[in-house]
Design goal:
Radius of gyration: 17 Å
Structural class: mainly alpha
CATH architecture: Up-down Bundle
Strand content: under 5%
Helix content: over 70%
CATH class: Mainly Alpha
Number of domains: 1
Order of helices and strands: HHHHHHHHHH
Number of helices: 10
Distance between the termini: 12 Å
Largest sheet: none
Length: 230
């Protein structure tokens, strides 16, 4: 386990988080507020944009920082002893900062339409939608764990496809990422989320990640999967 923290790792996590948030927010502003597309069309466009950009970001930064861009992924990598506690904390900080910068830059590109760089959302996402965050985060974290364990060389493609697909098939449109959730508090457009719902979303994301890790540790051992535990 490499406990040293390099500038390149932190910059990779910041930039990756920033561009991931920009993909999520800017595509919705473009299609709904600028192009007047139906919400269903905008969600499909958003899923494609996020999938493509996430795939590229993982390819760009995967060998630099591991391309986490997500505090719950960093948390699980800490449990797996892939990163140390100090590095995990630094990664999370830069992820959150990168996400908020991504919100500001997304709105900057469409400033004539949105009016300000940041604006607190009042977009309610509640009740049954919360369950979508457990399921979406579970499958994301579970997939990453298995892909890393098996040494897959297609992590970027698989994760990109998975996120794009889940974005179109979960009730929450799959945030599955605390830094993205916090970043989306600060846009009053369709992609935003009000603060109280964001807190519950993050709690659901942590639950989903922990459930994924528990199943992974319980079921995918040497005896059941043909691989030694790490």
């Amino acid at each position: 386990m490499n406990k040293q923290i390099s500038k390149s790792e932190l910059v990779a996590e910041l930039l990756g988080s920033m561009f991931l948030v920009m993909a999520a927010i800017a595509s919705m502003i473009l299609f709904i507020d600028i192009l007047d597309a139906p919400k269903g069309v905008a969600i499909i466009a958003n899923a494609i944009a996020v999938a493509f950009i996430l795939c590229a970001l993982i390819e760009m930064f995967g060998r630099v920082s591991g391309a986490h861009f997500n505090p719950v992924v960093t948390m699980i990598m800490l449990f797996e002893k892939k990163v140390g506690a100090l590095k995990a904390a630094a990664f999370m900080l830069f992820q959150f900062v990168g996400g908020i910068i991504g919100t500001a830059f997304s709105r900057l590109m469409f400033l004539d339409e949105v009016g300000t760089l940041l604006a607190v959302s009042d977009n309610a996402r509640n009740e049954y939608v919360f369950w979508g965050e457990i399921f979406g985060t579970f499958i994301l974290v579970f997939a990453i764990l298995l892909l890393v364990k098996t040494g897959s060389n297609k992590i970027s493609i698989v994760v990109g496809f998975l996120v794009g697909g889940q974005l179109m098939s979960t009730s929450s449109t799959m945030f599955a990422n605390p830094q993205v959730t916090v970043a989306r508090i600060f846009t009053d457009t369709t992609s935003g989320i009000r603060p109280i719902d964001a807190v519950i979303f993050i709690a659901m994301q942590i639950i989903g990640a922990l459930l994924a890790y528990a199943v992974y540790r319980l079921a995918f051992t040497k005896n059941t999967y043909g691989m030694e535990e790490k």
